[in-house]
Specification:
Number of strands: 2
Number of domains: 3
Helix content: over 70%
CATH topology of the largest domain: Farnesyl Diphosphate Synthase
Strand order of the largest sheet: 1-2
Number of helices: 18
Structural class: mainly alpha
Radius of gyration: 23 Å
CATH architecture of the largest domain: Orthogonal Bundle
């Protein structure tokens, strides 16, 4: 009976959703689980179709043309990096005389840390800007300015990661040794992280000093820099300062850390840059900001979930949040739900690298149904975000938000 019900439900699921990871034959294991998830699925289908593109044939045609444009934009974006790097190293406008040795160091440091990731944040500036300019021609100069801002976001990201890896005593980043772990680098990476952030200010000054919105850009970047640093401070104080005490891991504190450390620069900053480049005033888009911040929190909760329950072959790393004593969404939920015995197990084993300790923590997570709690949260936050997007009166803004949500909803890595 369970297999028949799964097949019946699968026959009514749009092809694009199944291909995105909703294969019911693989996901549903028992009749009880089938019924529970079928009920949840029924309420989500219409909203999913709104975000994922409607009917199959029309959606595929639109996505095909869009994919070509997206790939072309990415190629232009990558070319812009080489130009910016050359300017940082050689242009007198940056008012610094490099020796051959320092030039080689900075060139290696940039190539190692700036362009090596998925570039989602930088490319989001371009995608958002192109949507905001829909219906008007975007010339090469305007497109390049969007690329400059996109790379500024990636430069800022690189600065944050270089310094974050040091404070977390991390070993690998993007399938390579962390920059500071290289034998020739060490703690010189602290200055490199600061230098990367200084490059952002210099690049913005070079390209936007004569623009009417230059002051708005400087205020935005200073604000984001402060918020990110405050988020990092909250994380360090909560995780590393004083005696270890899991009682400090509460949802309010967790949300503050994520909001300031991740959401602002990862989700709000790219769109804010696109808006300013398009001549908008950020004060007119407060609700947009709120939606993007909430998406950022959702994104980090997904990260925490995948760190524990994701497939290492898919996400590209073995999760370490348990042994690193991270203030993760999973441990926050567990601390709220655990009984006395489960609390004792968590306190005795969380933050230890012994495989048996890690297994003990994960076993408590399973006993508390943390995986199901995550699925329920994901369903709830998705509906909330879709509702907020639908309420946005500006068509271009709705499209920007839909693209962000489509990228992260039910992601596997």
């Amino acid at each position: 009976m369970g297999a028949q019900l799964a097949a019946s439900i699968a026959s009514h699921v749009p092809w694009g959703l199944v291909s995105a990871g909703l294969s019911l034959a693989a996901a549903l294991a028992s009749p009880g689980e089938i019924i529970r998830r079928a009920s949840r699925l029924e309420g989500e289908l219409k909203e999913l179709l709104r975000v994922h593109g409607g009917a199959r044939a029309g959606g595929e045609q639109k996505q095909g043309g869009g994919a070509v444009e997206v790939e072309q934009n990415k190629e232009r974006f990558l070319r812009a990096y080489e130009r910016l790097k050359t300017e940082v190293l050689n242009d007198r406008a940056f008012d610094f005389d490099f020796t051959d040795e320092t030039k080689q160091w900075v060139a290696k440091m940039l190539d190692y840390n700036v362009p090596g990731g998925k570039l989602n944040r930088g490319l989001s500036v371009i995608h958002s800007y192109m949507l905001l300019r829909e219906g008007t021609e975007v010339d090469d100069d305007d497109f390049y300015l969007a690329c400059v801002l996109g790379w500024c976001v990636e430069w800022f990201q690189a600065s944050a990661l270089v310094l974050d890896d040091i404070t977390d005593n991390a070993y690998t980043r993007r399938d390579n040794l962390c920059w500071y772990k290289l034998p020739t680098v060490g703690l010189s990476a602290i200055n490199d992280g600061v230098l990367l952030k200084c490059h952002v200010q210099a690049i913005i000054k070079r390209y936007f000093k004569e623009k009417s919105y230059f002051l708005d850009f400087m205020e935005l970047w200073n604000e984001i820099g402060l918020q990110t640093a405050m988020g990092q401070m909250l994380d360090l104080i909560t995780t590393h300062t004083g005696a270890k005490d899991l009682a400090r891991y509460r949802i309010q504190g967790y949300r503050c850390i994520v909001k300031y450390k991740t959401s602002y620069y990862s989700f709000y900053l790219p769109v804010a840059c696109a808006l300013l480049l398009n001549g908008a005033k950020l004060s007119d888009y407060v609700e947009l900001k709120n939606v993007l911040i909430e998406m950022g929190v959702y994104f980090q909760i997904q990260d925490d979930y995948l760190d524990c329950f994701g497939d290492p072959e898919v996400i590209g790393k073995v999760g370490t949040d348990i042994e690193d004593y991270k203030c993760s969404w999973l441990i926050v939920q567990a601390m709220e739900l655990a009984n006395e015995n489960e609390m004792k197990i968590l306190c005795e084993n969380y933050g230890k690298s012994d495989p048996e300790c890690i297994a003990a923590v994960k076993n408590v997570y399973r006993e508390l149904d943390i995986q199901d709690i995550f699925l329920e949260y994901e369903s709830r936050i998705y509906k909330h975000l879709v509702s907020a997007i639908d309420a946005e009166p500006d068509h271009a803004i709705r499209e920007v938000l839909k693209i962000f949500l489509k990228k992260i909803y039910r992601r596997k890595k």
